[in-house]
Amino acid sequence: MNPIGRANELAELATAWDRVVAGAPELAVVWGRRRVGKTYLLTHFAQNKRSVYFTATRQDTDDRQLRRFAEALREQLGDEVADLAPPTFPTWEAALRFVAGIARAEPLLVVLDEAPRLSGGHADFADTVSAVWENHIRNQRLMLVLSGSAVAVMEQMLGPQGGLHRRAGVERRMDPFPLTDARAFLPDLPPADFIQAYAACGGYPLHLRRWSAQRSTDENLDDLAFTPGGLLLRDAPDILSEDLDWRGGYERVLTAMAGGARRRSKIAGRAQQRIDYTLDRLRRAGYVRTVRALGTGGSPDPFYEIADDYLAYWFAVLRDDADLIDGGQGPAVRQRTSGRWQTHLARVFEAAARDHAQRLVAAGTLPSDTVIGRWWKDETVEIDVLGLTGDRPVLVGECRWQAKPLTQRDLGDLRRRAAHLASPGSAGLTFAFWSRGGVDETLTNHPEIRSFTPADIVSTG
Questions:
Q1: Per the database record, which ranges form the DUF234 domain (predicted)?
Q2: Is pLDDT at 63 greater than 60 in this prediction?
Q3: What are phi and psi of 145, to 5 degrees?
């Protein structure tokens, strides 16, 4: 079975393997957070190939890692290396030169998973790989894949000062699935229920596979989030631990953001620390995104928000009460955090609406040069979805995670907010509403109004 939604990654790796079979060595780097499916993808890719798959372990010595790698060679390649592979290797350079040697006659795939854990010795592992690739790899039929969950470390290896800079023929970052791609994991779940599942699980394959379509949202959350040892309760610290040292105050910053602090000054105030370095590190590692008001006339100060929906859920809903949940009080915690859960849901729904608006542009429903974003001015007015063609607004939208249909009052409020924008162009202005309950009959006859539901948002058609 092919990994869901990873066709581009598989195709890129397969093309590189074809080059190896033809006699050209290939270095590939695949990285991304824990749980995004790197191991699943690479083990699937390695099937039916002459291959060695090795996973480095945390806090192990070079000697131990090298001994384990030699054991993996003997176990996975069997008789062909039984008399060639030593009990261990003195260095990683020697180990890599050995696999290059046995790749001369027949194609060989070597996957070194969690490669940043091999940097614990005196030499940087990326520099070692680079030196071997430069000096000892010529026409061997070798494909070496380095994989890792420490996103910041992997990108440093590939960056201008890193040992792998411009060395790899394949550089592929794997991120959690966006909502529409994640739909393939739970295709039979009603659209509104799926959005709730995604808001809790994010785009992580393991989380989505554990969500049961036969159970209600509350039942799934009880099992996965509000039970001691539940997957959603325990996974966030493991994901973050690959990248972040908690002594750097990252947890405080992310907690402040999950609690609603979006401006730099408010985040710093709630975290009670200086945040310039911390925020920049979180942004570069992909945990935080910077959002600016689209177009002109809005606030010049950016917003900052957690870029990962599952991590945002964990920080907003679970983190502060994890000890109570572990103590068996999950049902009570779920009730007392219901307001935070609904706030988080609304944010996920709003982001999904903006993604849907971008698909409307791609489909030709809106002018092809329309850009989609959001707009706000100080603390006075905020527009959830804004579409601009040039400097002129063509779409102004509101998102509401509510089952009750929207009314004329909501349209009036949206018109008042739109009055803060530049005048629309000759094509006029479309008002759009994204809501679970749609709009009532008083709005259905307005030609300038579009209404969308969760079914529209999750549709991939």
A1: 314-403
A2: yes
A3: -115, 120
Write out the residue range of the structural domain in which residue 92 sits.
Answer: 7-173
What end-to-end distance do the CA atoms of the chain give, in Å?
A: 24
CA-to-CA dists, residue 64 to 57, 119, 433, angstroms:
9, 13, 59
Is 354 part of a structural domain of the chain?
yes
Whether residue 289 lies inside any domain: the answer is yes
- pTM of the complete model: 0.93
Closest by alpha carbon to 123, among 92, 149, 146, 79? 92
Phi then psi for 425, rounded to 5 degrees? -80, -170
Q: How far is it, in rounded angstroms, from Cα 21 to Cα 3?
A: 23
The residues with which 109 forms a beta bridge, in sequence order, are: 51, 143
Split into its structural domains, the chain has a count of 3
User: Residue 2: inside a domain, yes or no?
Assistant: no
Clarify whether residues 158 and 186 are in a common domain: no
DSSP code string of 335-354: HHTHHHHHHHHHHHHHHHHH
Question: What percent of the chain lies above the pLDDT cut of 70?
Answer: 98
Three-state DSSP class for residue 175: coil
- The span from the CA of 123 to the CA of 111, in Å, is 20
In one letter, which amino acid is 173? R
Which pLDDT band holds residue 428 (cuts at 50, 70, 90)?
confident
